[in-house]
Structure to design on (129 residues):
């Protein structure tokens, strides 16, 4: 039942219906509050919808629920945290989260984390605005 709910939520997101996806993910979190993946996906969906504070809450809960997350989850948790914190104006904590994302072994998006971490630095022309 959990995988079917997640599939439906992801299909709604892929079809461009972020509101339906978020609703389905909220239901899934309610049904399976101790499962990290629904919290992670809800945090991601909220982040993509520009709802940074609720996204941070869900991402934190996902991180709390998993002891040894796979590299992709650990990296994206920190990446989304960093980007959400940056949009909220908390640059110091954003940089900490992006640094942690860049240090996750086998995180395939480590280059993106490094680019975000160094964005705007004058000594890194690839990251200048």
């Amino acid at each position: 039942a959990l995988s079917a709910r997640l599939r439906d939520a992801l299909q709604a997101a892929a079809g461009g219906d972020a509101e339906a996806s978020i609703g389905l993910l909220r239901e899934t979190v309610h049904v399976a509050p101790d499962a990290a993946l629904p919290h992670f996906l809800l945090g991601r969906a909220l982040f993509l919808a520009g709802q940074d504070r609720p996204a941070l809450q869900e991402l934190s809960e996902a991180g709390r629920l998993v002891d040894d997350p796979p590299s992709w989850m650990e990296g994206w948790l920190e990446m989304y945290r960093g980007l959400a914190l940056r949009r909220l104006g908390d640059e110091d904590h954003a940089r900490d989260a992006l640094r942690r994302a860049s240090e996750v072994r086998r995180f395939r998006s480590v280059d993106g984390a490094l680019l975000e971490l160094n964005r705007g630095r004058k000594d890194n022309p690839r990251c200048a605005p």
